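Pasting two entries for a bug report.
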Amino acid sequence: MATAWMLLGAGVVVFGLAAVLVHNGAPAWDATWFRAINETPHAVADVLTPLARLFSPVGLAVAVAAAAIAAVVRSRSVLPLLVGASAGGAAWLIANLTKAAADRPRPYEVVAGAILRQSAAHGTSFPSTHTAVAVAAAIAVLPFLPRPAAWGAIAFAVCVGWSRIYLGVHYPLDVLGGAGIGMAVGGAALLVLGNLAGWPAQPSVAGASPDRDEGS
């Protein structure tokens, strides 16, 4: 359970720090880093923009479903599907409740020269709901995936966060806040999963997939 508790605690800390910084007036580096990621030469953007759109809501839904199905097939149980969907749904709900409280404008609305590479986004900026859902769902299904697929799930979640900044709809602090929510919810999902299945909730990227105690 140690890994799950660490993820839960780290997520709370990351989200809390990001929320405090946004509440007190985001630091200058937030806009600076946004510009560094968002404003790229046209030649580079021609390659990055189609790539970033792979991590759109549709791409995220397909990736989460694929990871869950792979985990179901490997574990021969619907438990990873239920846990992954529950974690993603909880992260979505928490992120949207936070958006209503934070009421932060989108960067393309206030940053001079910001490039919006998709249609205008709904809602406010902090935190990134896409990042929260991606991180939470990825962590929740880690114990059911082989190590290469587990690292792939984590990499996909990281790319979702990057794409939200690059496309112009979120600041880095928004992504950090969303990642914090995802880590906390994912860690909580692993704790619940460990209690239900009767084995320590240890993501497979930290070692081999956990085995159930057949004698219990």
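Entry 2 (this is the one that rendered wrong in the viewer):
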Amino acid sequence: MNLGLKSIKSRIIFLSVLLAVCLILAVLYTQRIVNQSTGTSLDLVVEDRTLFHQLNILKESVKETERTIYQYSLLHEKSMHKNLDVLSKSLVYQADSLLENQTTSNADLLRLPILRLRDTLINIQFELRDFVKIVGNMETLYPAMPILRDELYPINVA
């Protein structure tokens, strides 16, 4: 198997062509790997932004719930009562959507704190119902009110 490579010049040309073909194949393979890595990185950036956006929405909902709790405890309006119920359900829904995020569903290190957060938000939802019951009724909000109204006030008037 001679391949017409009797002279040194033809052998050098053959090796140069072979080296060029190997280099072109290596460049094409490297380019494919870089393109795949770039695509994966872009996907991760999109997932990161989505997760960051969901966390910001959750954070703002928590702040809105806190403001509504303070307002309801001062003003005792029925519209705020309904708003508290909606907000507490929304918080649990947002925690569920965090669990369904592709980044958190694949990472146990992120999933466990979100599960604890969801459980805490469910407990807060129950606590808010108790809070609304207590604050919504003057006799439970001020336990001494019946004594003041029924016993002390008539004595004071007399």
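Dev reply: Rendering is fixed now. As a check, the viewer should reflect this: The chain has a mean pLDDT of 87.
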